[in-house]
What we know:
The structure holds two protein chains of two kinds. By secondary structure, chain A is α+β, with helices and mostly antiparallel strands. Chain A has helices at 82-95, 122-136, 163-168, 195-224, 228-238, 251-263, and strands at residues 15-19, 27-33, 36-47, 60-67, 107-117, 146-153, 156-159, 171-178, 183-187, 190-191. Chain A folds into two domains: 15-225, Ribosomal Protein S5, domain 2, CATH 3.30.230; 229-264, no CATH class. Chain A has six helices and ten strands, in the order ββββαβαββαβββααα. In chain A, strands 1-2-3-5-4 form a five-stranded mixed beta sheet. In chain A, strand 1 and strand 2 (27-33) form a beta hairpin. The longest helix of chain A has 30 residues, at 195-224. Chain B folds into three domains: 17-62, CATH 2.40.50.100; 74-149, CATH 2.40.50.140; 153-228, Ribosomal Protein S8, Chain: A, domain 1 (2-Layer Sandwich), CATH 3.30.1370.10. In chain B, the strands form four sheets. In chain B, strands 8-9-10-12-11 form a five-stranded mixed beta barrel. A four-stranded mixed beta sheet of chain B has the order 1-6-7-3, with no helix packed on it. In chain B, a hairpin with a 3-residue loop joins strand 8 (74-82) and strand 9. The longest helix of chain B is centred in the C-terminal third of the chain and has 13 residues, at 199-211. At the A-B interface, strand 3 and helix 4 of A face loops of B.
Amino acid sequence: MKRKDKRKPGDLRSVEIKAGVIEQADGSAMVKMGRTIAVAAVYGPREMHPRRMRKSERAFLKTTYRMAPFSTTDRCRPGRSRRSQEISMVTREALEPAIFLEEFPKTGIYLFIEIIQADAGTRTAGINAASVALADAGIPMRDLVASVAAGKIGKDYFLDLEYKEEEETAADVPVAYMPRTKEITLLQMDGDLSVKDMKGVLQTAIKGCEIMYEKQKQALRERWGPNAADVKKELKTKTAKPPSGTLRGTPSGAQASTKTEKKR
Amino acid sequence: MKRGVYMSEMIKNDREFVLPGDEIINSMDYLPGRSCFRDGNSIYSKRLGLVSVRGRVISVISLSGVYVPRGGDMVIGKVEDIHSAGWVVNIESVGEAFLPLSGVREFIDTTKTDLSKFYAVGDVIYAKINSANPHSIHLSMQDPRARKFRSGRIVNMSPAKVPRLIGKEGSMINVIKDKSGCRINVGQNGLVWFEGEKEDLVVDAINLVEKDAARDGLTNKVSLMLNGK
């Protein structure tokens, strides 16, 4: 069985990660997985509000997952929904094991995840962005958390499904994973799989997480690592030409500009 | 294994860039210091930053993040509230700081004096951190440098880059003070107060330090820029 975008079953969609995209935030990141775009911002640790959520022995990771109204083909009603609350919770639980929360008792770490464009795998993109943003904010962590979904179409295990594939798959299994300690921090299944298939899908997803992990590290190195300033300067001089008018809001224009950047 | 010979090899060297979860060394001969933790035999980094090896202690100098208070640091803060036993001060850190009556130089009889005569809500002070732990931060004004600001300007910078603004034994900050003719007080929490002839030069210098904190020869660059203006 072939994939619509000619990927191999074990391939990720084209991934682009950028750290430090929001200047006002203590840490931030943007993750593109194919057509899915997630932006995460981290504030804190700072005082916890509302005060009743304060934990006396550790920090509280307040997570807000939100989808922009224009992120889907049909308008998505803004504000909290059952779905967004659930994803906020699983995201928090996927990230908490990675953070040294006990270092900041009575405080709150605020994490906001905004889905700008949705084409399946928004929770995984959100977790990837959040994990980079947390590291960018200098929050003490045991490891970065990488996250990718996998599924089964026909007889093959497919990594990182896009929306059209998600309609065909027997089950969609998002996984979040800490590669250093080989711990799984998120495991969900939407659909049905046999035990054997579940193992296969899980293995595929974990392999994807390991690739994603490297990309996350690369993004942080680009922003903070040695010679990061020089790299930035180079990029600036290269893209110094004013972008043409097509860039304005139209997705086709935006895509075109990223393509030309890649060619350079 | 001979005594005194370290058999373990550094996986990351001194001054090398690390990310959270990166293994720095696999050895029980070393101790994890700031921003590091031990898991099994290895020491790992907690934050993104630069490895620092001092004797047998391995730590990571963080490149980002909010200010984490340490005893002895001088910070700039704003008085937010007055209690019966002291003042609550916002030092833009993890929690609120508290300046108790015992931290003030004078003896104050709370039954007779109004505490706002010393520090009112909204006053900005330069204070020393007397003690800091995850549960409380206590300030003190019993330091020759501590004072209340009555005029001048304050700008905000990344707390992780404050050491660069000060430089080795204050080399950088002295250059800026000389060239701008300003009095400058640097708070370790990333707030910088200054007042004097050419205040704009100080702002430019701080911006340059923030932008190029990771580069070498920063002091020269700053003094060149200040000479040019």
